[in-house]
Design a protein that fits this description.
Helix content: 25-40%
Radius of gyration: 17 Å
Low-confidence stretches: 1-5
Distance between the termini: 26 Å
Largest sheet: 6 strands, parallel
Structural class: alpha/beta
Oligomer: single chain
Strand order of the largest sheet: 1-9-8-5-2-3
Shape: globular
Mean pLDDT: 96
Number of helices: 7
Number of strands: 9
């Protein structure tokens, strides 16, 4: 269940303000982590807003040391490496190709035309990378999430085996209700291994799911309700996405 007592909700006037707020949160968390521990880790999300915030971070990176950031993805479409639908390709175009990252610290999910053509094998290979990082560092610093209109985050859709997974950190999804059907995703237990979870959500079509998640819905029904950070959970919303919330004046 969502621990709504520890949720922070920030409502932005429009999409531009929402993206700016998300980019600022990205920079703040990474800079603070590097100041505290010398390194940082970010789990990226795709989608229009997720990619737009990376483009903005590229323009205003603050004091981020790009060579000391590990990058992961919350989920990936299991398609060929050059497919425009891959989240990692979009993130590279928006940010990673333009800043001095350490290639060894960019942890991609295998492509369907690569060394692991079976999605279960690709999930196992990605899981090994996730476990190795967490064994050394204990947690991710930042997990960015978008959300679908039915409340899905990563490739965790309502009433599916993936959202019910209670132990594994990474699983293959072979019947996603949203195309493409085959994906690799971090699970709710993996999301909860992040110090800071930030959900960036815009649009009136998502308002009811936002309100349900923040009110403490069962994650099997509203997967975003399971997205809870170890130290903070922040909902960044535009006014339309916040329209079903009962917020104080």
């Amino acid at each position: 269940m969502s621990d709504s007592a520890n949720d922070t909700v920030e409502v932005h006037i429009d999409t531009e303000s929402l993206v700016a707020g998300a980019a600022a949160r990205f920079v703040d968390v990474v800079v603070a982590a590097q100041a505290a521990r010398g390194t940082a880790s970010v789990v990226l999300t795709g989608g229009g807003t997720g990619i737009a915030l990376l483009e903005l971070v590229r323009k205003s990176p603050g004091d981020i040391d790009w060579s000391a950031v590990d990058f992961f993805w919350g989920d990936e479409r299991f398609v060929p490496a050059g497919d425009a639908e891959r989240n990692d390709l979009q993130a590279c175009h928006a940010l990673l190709d333009h800043v001095p990252v350490d290639p060894g610290r960019v942890h991609r999910v295998a492509a369907s035309d690569g060394e692991y053509p079976d999605p279960v094998e690709a999930a196992a290979e990605y899981s090994a990378a996730v476990h190795a990082y967490l064994a050394e560092h204990g947690s991710f610093d930042l997990h960015l999430l978008g959300m679908g209109g039915e409340g899905h985050v990563n490739s965790l859709f309502p009433h599916t085996d993936a959202v019910r997974e209670a132990h594994e950190l990474v699983v293959a999804v072979t019947n996603s209700p949203k195309p493409p059907p085959v994906r690799v995703t971090l699970t709710v237990p993996a999301i909860r291994r992040a110090r800071h979870v930030v959900l960036v959500v815009g649009g009136a079509a998502k308002a009811e799911a936002v309100a349900a998640a923040i009110a403490g819905a069962d994650p099997v029904d509203i997967p975003s309700a399971g997205a809870v950070g170890l130290e903070s959970t922040t909902w960044l919303l535009d006014q339309d996405a916040a329209s079903a919330l009962q917020l104080p004046d």
